[in-house]
Design brief:
Chain B: It comes from Paraglaciecola chathamensis S18K6. Chain B: Pfam families: ABC_tran. Chain B: Keywords: ATP-binding, Cytochrome c-type biogenesis, Membrane, Nucleotide-binding, Translocase, Transport. Chain B: This is Heme exporter protein A. The complex is a heterodimer of chains A (222) and B (178). With 222 residues, chain A is mainly alpha-helical. Chain A is built from 9 helices and no strands. Chain A has helices at 2-18, 20-41, 45-68, 70-78, 80-85, 91-120, 125-153, 160-186, 192-220. Chain A is elongated and about 55 Å long. With 178 residues, chain B is of the alpha/beta class. Chain B has helices at residues 11-19, 40-45, 62-72, 79-88, 104-112, 114-117, 135-150; strands spanning 2-4, 30-31, 34-35, 47-50, 123-127, 154-158, 171-173. The radius of gyration of chain B is 16 Å and the shape is globular. At the A-B interface, α1, α4 and α5 of A face α2 and α3 of B.
């Protein structure tokens, strides 16, 4: 079984490498949104510092939505998903590995870019560390919960808009706690409470989402 | 078992219910007296399904696709075996060409290689396996099906071509109703 899961992981990484131009799209979007903000609202450092964390988080959520469909769409269209579902490997584990591979290939690059973007928005160092920790805890949550909605909208031709409508309300609590943490950091206050809440949400989704995704995928075959 | 019927009669739907991909509105599918929804994993170890969608990723090459498929389905494999099977199917020299560059028939042959690699599955469910294959390909697949049947395997298939296997078959005629 571990051989099967390793194969899924390696295949998804290989596919991501072959289709890297597709992966660039959300990344470019992320950079563009954030670099346009200082131009739009003026270069006043205090204003930028105030809106910065929110802007980075909103851009991260929107750009992760852009790349989310890749997760299962190709496999659904070419029948690989059927074959995966007809193997003896438990589907929840397979989807967990797929989500992990997706997170590594399409979200981690965003995290790597974040120091540069924090500089654009004049974030102080403690603010940046708070931002990075919320992103590290929060973005896997985006992928896990997003995958459920991707599974549900697979059968639709233009599921992208519905996907965004389904997911954005779910991501709002995450956005609020994440920006509150960075806000607290900017005032030199402790922000471990916000991080703990995001961490708890991540753990819950880590435990439950694989089953929900697997179920959504089975429904999509009907 | 050979399932016949006009377009839209429900052949593919029937096969998908048999694989467990789709759950039936009424009734249940039993395998070794167990409902396949409940004993999914045991059933799927014994099952090989070949549907309309090939399950071959177009950005990977034949070798990568088959390696992945074997690992995923717990089939013991090494590259030499995969090369051998691909050679048998007339894909010599195309093993590391991206699948999207192969012709429709060749893409199907890549997917068909599973029938030679997976020898443990007893139940084969084939949905139009002969589509887009040339005469030689059809003959190869026919022989493989007969060999499987002679080993005591079971095949459920649909086809619009006249079936030409040297083995007693059962026929099921589906009708198109509105």
């Amino acid at each position: 079984m571990s051989m099967a899961l390793k194969a899924v992981f390696e295949r998804d990484l290989a596919l991501a490498y072959r289709q890297r131009s597709e992966l660039m799209q959300p990344m470019m979007f992320f950079i563009l949104v954030i670099s346009l903000f200082p131009l739009g609202i003026g270069p006043n450092p205090e204003t930028l510092q105030k809106v910065g964390p929110g802007v980075i988080w909103v851009a991260a959520i929107l750009s992760s939505l852009l790349g989310m469909e890749r997760l299962f769409k190709d496999d659904y269209n070419d029948g690989s998903l059927e074959q995966i579902m007809l193997s003896a490997t438990p589907l929840p584990l397979v989807v967990l590995v797929k989500v992990l591979a997706h997170w590594l290939t399409s979200i981690v690059p965003l995290l790597l870019l974040s120091p540069l973007l924090a500089l654009f928005l004049n974030l102080t160092e403690p603010m940046y560390w708070a931002l990075l920790s919320t992103l590290l805890l929060g973005t896997p949550l985006l992928s896990l919960v997003g995958a459920i909605a991707v599974g549900l909208t697979l059968g639709l031709n233009r599921g992208g808009v519905l996907l965004a409508l389904l997911l954005l309300p779910v991501f709002i609590p995450l956005l609020i706690f994440a920006t509150a943490a960075v806000e607290a950091a900017s005032l030199q206050l402790p922000y471990s409470a916000q991080l703990a809440i995001i961490g708890a949400m991540l753990l819950i989704s880590l435990a439950l989402a694989p089953f929900a995704i697997a179920y959504a995928l089975r429904v999509s075959q009907n | 078992m050979y399932i016949k019927g006009p377009n839209g009669a429900g052949k593919t739907s029937l096969l998908r219910v048999l694989t467990g991909l789709v759950s039936p509105d009424e009734g249940a599918v039993l395998f070794e007296e167990q409902n396949i929804i409940k004993s999914r994993e045991q059933y799927h170890q014994q099952l090989l399904y070949f549907g309309h969608a090939l399950g071959v990723n177009r950005s990977l090459n034949a070798l990568e696709n088959l390696r992945f498929w074997c690992a995923q389905h717990g089939v013991e494999h090494n590259d030499a075996e995969i090369y051998e099977v691909l050679a048998l199917l007339g894909l010599v020299g195309l093993e590391d060409v991206t699948v999207s560059h192969l012709s429709a028939g060749q893409q199907r042959r890549v997917a068909l290689a599973r029938f030679w690699l997976q020898t443990a599955a007893r139940v084969w469910i084939l949905d139009e396996p002969f589509t887009a294959l040339d005469v030689q390909g059809i003959a190869l697949l026919n022989n493989r099906i007969v060999a499987h049947l002679k080993q005591g395997g079971c095949v459920v298939m649909t086809s619009h071509q006249a079936l030409d296997v040297d083995y007693p078959t059962k026929e099921l005629q589906l009708e198109y109703r509105i």
